[in-house]
Amino acid sequence: MGEEFSRPRGWTRRRALRLPVLGLPMVGLPILGLTSATTALSTDAIAAPSLAPFAGPPPGSVVIRMRERKLYLVLDGGQAIRYPVAVARPDKQWHGTVHIDGKYIEPAWMPPPDVKRDNPRLPDYIAGGAPDNPMGARALTLSGDLYAIHGTTRRMRRSIGSYASYGCIRMLNEDIIDLYQRVRVGTPVTVVP
């Protein structure tokens, strides 16, 4: 297990992540429309995954670079698959090394208390597979019981490449499906600024 990651003040451990109903932080839900924080995209933000040179962590590791808004799955031979992602808003960012501790297909979602407080019109529960479920097609929960790497809704695709979430890493559904097939429970995930 990696070193403990730093958490923003006010976050507590949530056991709900180990259940099929995930209570993960999220922002800009389709029910409320996108916030201004989710709309600032670079022109290449929603580029397809690509191979990139990559040195450092061992093959099979995942590295997320917040400033780049990219997730890298490290391969053999000094290469990595580079995926565009949405990352945490500046006031919700964290970094450190964790590991994947759960894999879920179309998980249900319950907004955590601070998301519900900030977005009171959100329902208390969104069924897995529902078109407005912010978890999307797949979710990879991370140790620490706070965050996940997950898909998105059709309306939230525009957030990819931005600083948009309460701490989760958001991917296009087609990209999280690909990543889901390539990683296992226990895969190390390193998040850097």
TrEMBL record:
Record has Electron transport as a keyword: no
Keyword Membrane: yes
Keywords, in A-Z order: Cell shape, Cell wall biogenesis/degradation, Glycosyltransferase, Hydrolase, Membrane, Peptidoglycan synthesis, Transferase, Transmembrane, Transmembrane helix
Entry-linked Gene3D superfamilies: L,D-transpeptidase catalytic domain-like
Pathway this chain belongs to: Cell wall biogenesis; peptidoglycan biosynthesis
PANTHER family listed in its UniProt record: L,D-TRANSPEPTIDASE, L,D-TRANSPEPTIDASE ERFK_SRFK-RELATED
Entry protein name: L,D-transpeptidase-like protein
